[in-house]
Specification:
Length: about 350
């Protein structure tokens, strides 16, 4: 309720975040004008927050308590897709090809993919799919998430890949080991799709440990929002390159995973991410190629990326024991390994190791 106007308004989140009534044509026109303001200045695109809640329409009935059930009637409604198709028309009218990626927090099969368009017309250019983010480091779950994403975002759709964000514990914390986080980085940056990196994952940061007197977010998301440690000097409260005490404690591994401890250091997580990004720039197949996912073999996740005559094979051991090296890959060239053995003529893949291989033409 706004005391100044004696009017009430809907907010699904904070009171400072009123939900707009997009069913009012004047509101939609004003929002289009806002988009044009930035597009005219040449911005490359937008990220739309929880965009699956945009189109509530006018047919939402009054609800009894508890009020928290309201989002169930406000999410993923047809009117939202209509609004996004009109926004897409606006974006497509600009010659510099701006794009929009949407946070679509829907986890059932096909839901996220529906926001990049259907026979009624294109909508978002990209839609976050959070199934990998919600998957534990186990072969069954990772294989299922990857396979379902590939099915949902089959051509001409294009997927995204997300392992961490500001709403969930960092994947380094969830997975429980550096080796797993390194292996997951390879999966994220070699699978078909556009990867989105959460600030600090390139350093391998863990969540911060937040005592009760430092809590900011009532929903318990402070840990993954801990500030970036720039330098190694400091403790849980101060330092690490910050001139003042930051709003939250630093990540639990700040002393060993600060920026100055990792940038330019061989074998660091930061160096691994740079090497993976360099591979993506060097090999177009990793940016645009098709993906073929093999059936799981024990704890071994395997997929091929193909574009023309170029084939890159990725192996990810999701288990705690070594697995046999596939017999058909003896002649492949190792482009990158998260382990210590970069030979392709070995007999095993180490626990929680990922390897990127280039298949030589016959």
């Amino acid at each position: 309720h706004d005391d100044a106007t004696d009017q009430s308004y809907l907010h699904l989140f904070l009171a400072e975040q009123p939900d707009l009534n997009w069913a009012n044509p004047e509101v939609e026109a004003a929002m289009h004008a806002t988009l044009r303001y930035w597009l005219d200045r040449g911005v490359d695109g937008f990220r739309a927050d929880v965009v699956n809640l945009i189109g509530k329409g006018t047919d939402v009935p009054d609800l009894p308590d508890p009020f928290w059930k309201f989002p169930l009637l406000a999410t993923d409604r047809p009117f939202g897709h209509e609004l996004l198709r009109r926004i897409r028309t606006l974006l497509d009218s600009y010659d510099h090809e701006p794009m929009m990626v949407g946070e679509v927090y829907l986890l059932r099969d096909g839901e996220s993919a529906s926001y990049v368009g259907d026979p009624d017309g294109p909508e978002l250019h990209l839609s976050f799919d959070f199934r990998p983010l919600h998957s534990p480091w186990q072969i069954e779950q990772m294989q299922a998430a990857l396979s379902k994403m590939e099915a949902d975002f089959a051509e001409p759709r294009w997927p995204t890949f997300v392992l961490s964000n500001h709403d969930r514990p960092r994947h380094r914390t969830c997975y429980g080991s550096e080796a797993r986080a390194r292996a997951a980085a390879v999966l994220e940056l070699t699978a078909r799709g556009t990867p989105f990196l959460y600030a600090g994952e390139e350093l391998g940061l863990e969540d911060g440990i937040v005592p009760d007197d430092r809590v900011v977010d009532p929903d318990g998301r402070d840990g993954c929002r801990a500030p970036i440690p720039w330098t190694t000097d400091g403790n849980d409260e101060v330092g690490h390159g910050w001139p003042v005490r930051p709003w939250l404690p630093f990540p639990a591994n700040a002393a060993t995973h600060s920026a100055d401890a990792e940038v330019g250091v061989a074998g660091s997580m930061h160096t691994l991410y740079r090497e993976l990004l360099a591979l993506r720039r060097q090999h177009e197949v990793l940016r645009r190629g098709a993906m073929e996912i093999a059936d799981a073999d024990g704890d071994l996740l395997r997929f091929d990326r193909r574009l023309g005559d170029e084939v890159i094979t990725v192996l990810v051991n999701c288990g705690e024991q070594q697995v046999p090296w596939p017999s058909d890959l003896g002649g492949a060239m190792v482009l990158l390994s998260t382990g210590s053995d970069d030979r392709s003529d070995r007999t095993a893949l180490a626990a929680n190791e990922s390897v990127v291989l280039q298949i030589r033409s016959k």
